[in-house]
Amino acid sequence: MLVGRPTARWAGPRSLPALLRRHVGLVVVLAAGVALRITTMAAYPPALWFQGDSGTYLRRAAEWPAMPARWTYPWLLKGFEWTGTVASVVALQHLAGLALGVAAYLLLRRLGGGPWLATLAAAPVLLDATQLTLEQYLLTETLFTTALAVAVLLLVWRERPGTIAGLGAGVAVALGMATRPTGVVALGALLLFLLVPWRGWRAPAAYLLGIVVLFGVAFAGIGTVKGALGLEGGKFLYGRTAQIADCDRLELRPGLRKLCPTQPLGQRPARPDWFIWNRDSPIRAVERPEDLDEFAREVLRQQPGDYLAAVASDTARYFWPAPLAPTEACLANWWRPQPAPTDWAADRDCVPRTASPDYRWQPAPSRDVEPNAASRFLHGYGRYAVTPPPALAAMVLIALVGAVWPRRGRLRLSMIGLLYAGVGLGIMVFSVATSMFDHRYGLPALAFLPIAAAVGWQRLRSAPQPTDRTTPADGEPDRLAPTTAESNGEHDERIEDRGHGAAAVPQRG
């Protein structure tokens, strides 16, 4: 019995105008995304500055060649220092945001999604005002999101990812985890995707090798496993647990009891990071960094229910609008386009700043600046062009329902939908569990949840595919079974035969 491949003949448009008409939805949304990013760069030159983090990254970049290998974002900054302006880094981040949208569209079209469904899934990352604003900041979010998105795309692009794809995905996900420890959720999700269903050992082995290679380099430069993985110190988890710690009933040694909050439960600051940065925080009394880890572990061990309730409550705020406390509203103000971000002297905590024109690790001096036309437009745009929390909830719901909906022959679509939903949702939950609720920390999910929802919707709308093999009647020719690409709902309209060249398996006669 012969095993053949379906012959694929190109039947698509050959001219640029025809190609643009075929993808008109993406063209329109992408053009809008480009225009919005140019407007953002004109509104807030050369870059937006977040007090504390942005300066730290530039200081680290200035330490080269003694800069630790794990600090990926300072390495990126150092790589563009020759330009003499941080605007070059911001331009790269905006290009990465556009690439995320295009990649989402191409993937969904490859999986058989229609052009308008794919355009709808690409629109949030291309047009969301918070996404535009974060790309303008000297912060790690864009690098982190891009690294994880590349890792996932490498493994889902083909039904059987090869050794090179596995190795590249391992390096990319390790890069994401080195940028922000939250990337560990993608590390585990991608490994599970490679193992279930089992498709051989080469891709999983290459994936793990890529991770080991990158963190091996970091370990060689730092010398400790915790340092290479970015796990040194526990101040963020301390802040998360200090907010809920009931020290009246906690059994703590004297050295840890000094870290108990002085405010009674119910009257503590709304933001857990108060316990990290405020000068009145008990963290000032810490004797050893290890004490912060130990305090957090004791709270988790003795108050697991309170901790899980706090994590669930804060995670839910990503999916349903809830009033913000004054300090939370202050922080949220940083992630929306502002009319004049350079006038920050009157309110140092709530008004965004701009970077210096060169590579100095200090922001531009505070001064009264009249809003320009670009910033006024973006300020108005940012009031409405933000993905609403209920829309994110709907994305998760559609993705999960679509993944488990009974459809024979759609296993791969289910796995892809669950993978994207798991990474997006995992980023939100892990950020809240180890730090706090912040729109900035949840934003990377915007590159994953729309794709998960589109895949779920595609699976809900698709007809079941027969997968049972039947024996043909006497005298009838053997009928080729559906290709693997067919059984997973893949179809490229440019090709007359379904599938992407996967070998068709003939039925037994």
UniProtKB/TrEMBL annotation:
Its EC number is 2.4.-.-. Residues 488-500 have a biased composition (Basic and acidic residues). Signal peptide: none annotated. Residues 463-509 are annotated as: Disordered. It holds the Pfam family PMT_2. One of its GO terms (molecular function) is glycosyltransferase activity. The chain crosses the membrane at residues 24-44, 86-108, 137-157, 169-195, 207-229, 385-405, 417-437, 443-460. Residues 87-217 form the Glycosyltransferase RgtA/B/C/D-like domain. Keywords: Glycosyltransferase, Membrane, Transferase, Transmembrane, Transmembrane helix. InterPro entries: RgtA/B/C-like. This is Glycosyltransferase family 39 protein. The lineage of its organism: Bacteria, Bacillati, Actinomycetota, Actinomycetes, Micromonosporales.
